[in-house]
Amino acid sequence: MRTLSIAVLLCLLSAPVLAQAAGPEQKPPDRYVLIHAGTLLAVPGTRPQSKMTVVVKNDRIAAVENGYITAVADAAPGSALQVIDLSDRFVLPGLMDAHVHLYHEPSFSRHRAERGDRHPPWPGEPGTGAEGAVNAMIYARRNLAAGFTTVRDLGSDDQSVFAVRNAINAGRMIGPRILVAGSAIAVTGGHGDSTPMGQTGDEMTRLANGTCDGPMECRKAVRYQYKLGADVIKFTSTGGFGSNTGLEPQLFPDEIEAIVATAHLVGLKVATHAYSPIAIKDAVRAGVDSIEHGFLLDDEGIVMMKKAGTFLVPTLSASYPPPIFRIPDPPSVRLRNEYRAFERAYAAGVKIAFGTDAGTFAHGDNAKEFELMVGFGMTPMDAVRSATIMTAELFGIATEAGTLEVGKLADLVAVQGNPLENIALLRKIDFVMKSGRIAKQDGRMTEPFNYPAVAE
């Protein structure tokens, strides 16, 4: 027994010596990618440049050079170097979508709107968090293939999209950067309330589903999503088309104030689903960061949003029309055309961030939003800015993404032709790089998963 103890002690004492003898862990060689861009829109809103090279070092942009360079003078010995010929392409920053639902496609939750019948699954909706995670893996990849290197998921559950975000962040799969809201916060019976009827009195079920009534419960609902690891808070101020719960306010002002103030207290931005002008103005007064949809936005609300710097995420694709409406001339189209909230807000100078509500239609078809925005009067350049610079500002990541400038993450996409002349070309993204990794080349996605070993 004494011999065994001495042997164990010697092993323990020798471990640090062995670690020192092995030396520090070797840093992997740098990876350089030289992207030869025929036309480069490095900063949307400025003039595109011709025959440029974007120098990518590991995950970030190291330089933007005139002409097509083929070497990096200060590269360390042993560095890897790859040249990508996009000399016949138009290169621009990776696109961002401020409103997606990776949990499902398409959303048939309208069928669940009858009182007492709110528990999935219905066609297109997962029945468990595990099924939702599988969906989110697939749909995240589709968003990336469409050129969306960053997306904001505004309503899923307490598990599925968190798991996919974490896998992407850990490098276990390549996908878009995901900002996760978790469960949308909604009042009992409101748009977004997914708590089953038989569990409406169970506190943990209500928290997991984001259901709250009154300021105290709403504060707790926000803190619960924060504890889960949410990147943003989403709440539903009004009813909605998707749940057949109408268009009017569903939260009292003190509930809205509690949600927004609590989220800001813990450093999270807040988005609200809102149709009614009353609910929009209540949310703006409370300091909400973005109004989602905003189809019934009135002139007073526009003035308030501009003064406060509140973003509008118009989600025109969600109203024009979403697949959940299997009828001609759906009400969403009639209301959108009657109020013209997007056009009026744009003309007034309200900040507009690109968002689609993908999940109410097929993921990967997000770029149709560009055509709607331009069709309703936005310039192609402003439409591109809305999906790059403006979304990056809304997300709070403007120092990291949104433009192709030195020091920023290497998120970029390329198309054939000039999307500033034909915005529909953004439906045909054939090259995607996310954080320096090539995700799509020559119209084909790279290997979806590499399953690296988990360090012990």
Low-confidence stretches: 1-21, 107-124
Mean pLDDT: 88
Report the β-strand fraction as a percent range. Answer: 15-25%
The computed structural class is alpha/beta
What about the largest sheet?
Answer: 8 strands, mixed
β-strand number: 15
> Helix content range of the residues, please?
25-40%
Instruction: Give me the number of helical elements.
Output: 13
User: What spatial order of strands do you see in the largest sheet?
Assistant: 3-2-1-4-12-13-14-15
Distance between the termini: 30 Å
Using the alpha-carbon principal axes, give the shape: globular
Radius of gyration: 24 Å
Nutshell version of this structure?
The chain is built from 13 helices and 15 strands. The protein is of the alpha/beta class and about 450 residues long.
Structural description of this entry:
With 456 residues, this protein is an alpha/beta fold. Helix content is 31%, strand content 20%. The chain has 13 helices and 15 strands. It has helices spanning 2-22, 129-145, 160-169, 203-208, 214-228, 253-265, 277-286, 299-308, 331-339, 341-348, 368-375, 380-386, 389-395, and strands at 31-40, 49-57, 60-66, 80-93, 95-100, 148-153, 177-180, 232-236, 269-274, 290-293, 311-313, 412-415, 431-434, 437-441, 444-445. The strands form 3 sheets. An 8-stranded mixed β-sheet has the order 3-2-1-4-12-13-14-15, with no helix packed on it. Helix 7 runs parallel beside helix 8. The radius of gyration is 24 Å and the shape is globular. It starts with a helix and ends in an 11-residue tail after the last strand.
